[in-house]
Amino acid sequence: MSSSRTATALANLQSSTPCCRFSHLHPDQPARAPRYPSDMSDAEWRLTEPLLPAPACTTYWGGGRETYCRRHVIDAIRYLVDNGVKWRALPADFPSWPVVYRYFRRFEAAEGTMHAVDELRRRIRAAEGRNSEPTAAVIDSQSVQGATTVGRATRGYDKGKNVNGRKRHIAVDTLGLLICVLVLAADVQDRDGGLDLLCLMRATCAKVRLVWADGGYAGALVHTLRRRLGLTLQIVKRTDDMKGFVVLPRRWVVERTFGWTRNCRGTVRDYERLPEHSEAMVRWSAIILMTRRATRYGL
Predict the structure, then answer these.
(1) Would you give the distance in Å from CA 292 to the centre of its chain?
(2) Where are the domains of the chain?
(3) Dist CA 212 CA 173 (whole Å)
(4) Is there a contact between 196 and 181 (Cβ–Cβ < 8 Å)?
(5) pLDDT tens for residues 206-246?
(6) Are 141 and 190 in contact (CB under 8 A)?
(7) How many Cβ atoms sit within 10 Å of the Cβ of residue 16?
(8) Is 157 helix (H, G, I), strand (E, B) or coil?
(9) Confidence of residue 288 (pLDDT cuts 50, 70, 90)
């Protein structure tokens, strides 16, 4: 193929994928079209782009246009979360891994994933005929094995699950949509992590008044939440006559969310050095799920 035909083909490839409005593409950044299952569709990108933190060039303080296309960066983050690869193993058609990691940290510093999860949850709830803000939630925890990159100071051993790593505490609404996530060492008891989680949830969803949980949250936490946060915590337990696997009321909602989350291989284990980056991985897996769900509603 001649050089002119190659340039034309690359230009067509670049134009076939709508990019962000605020970047001057880096000369070393390859043109790319969606080719991986984790890549966003055009509808998902139109939904996602306004939810990202504002570029510096659009703020009062000003700044230069970004060097890399945000759509390429977000696709790279989604690829990493969905496939569970190392940062250094990102495919060559994405921006280099230090660039993607820098954007990943920048979005977290600006609480970008928190804002995106909140806004997507509101839109999906409205599309399903619910109030945009939930009034009830379900909480649970999940212990996951920690890789060697997880430092000793932020990991622990969960004797009940025989897991050495970290524990994810999450709160979801009655549709199973993520409200918030808190990552602690695996040896932290559910009732201790539950208090911190629900304080975080209250800052996100102030209208929640009723919370369902399993027996690990029973005890003094029930009275503490009623007194300090005005929350009613209902414990859903297995009865003595239950044999084998039984779907428990309300608790199955959060268990299903854990199942959805683990569809992304990057969340099957904990590979991140910082707990806040582990929380970001869970939020990104929820964003992948919710953007696909939202586009099916035409949002």
Answers:
(1) 13
(2) 12-109, 133-272
(3) 10
(4) no
(5) 999 999 998 888 888 889 899 988 999 998 877 656 665 66
(6) yes
(7) 12
(8) strand
(9) very high
Q: Which residues touch 283 (CB under 8 Å, ≥6 apart)?
A: 113, 114, 116, 117, 178, 181
How much is the pTM?
0.87
| Residue 291 to residue 197: CA distance in whole angstroms | 24
User: For 60-73, b where at least 16 C-beta lie within 10 A, e where not — what string?
Assistant: eeeeeebebbbbbb
Per the model's pLDDT, the better-predicted residue between 236 and 61 turns out to be 236
State the DSSP string of 9-65: HHHHHHHTS---SSB---TTSPP----STTSPPHHHHHHHGGGSPPPGGGSSS--PP
Nearest to 270 by CA among 178, 146, 99, 179: 146
Dump pLDDT digits (tens) for 3-57. Answer: 444 344 334 444 445 566 655 555 555 567 788 999 999 999 999 999 998 877 6
* Candidates 3.30.200.20, 3.30.420.10, 3.20.20.120, 1.10.8.80; CATH matching 133-272: 3.30.420.10
Could you give phi then psi for residue 95, rounded to 5 degrees? -55, 160
Q: Which helix (H) or strand (E) holds 138?
A: strand 136-145
DSSP 166-221: EEEEEEE-TT--EEEEEEEETTS-HHHHHHHHHHHHHHH-TT--EEEE-GGG-SHH
Q: Is the pLDDT of residue 277 over 90?
A: yes
Nearest to 34 by CA among 81, 77, 71: 71
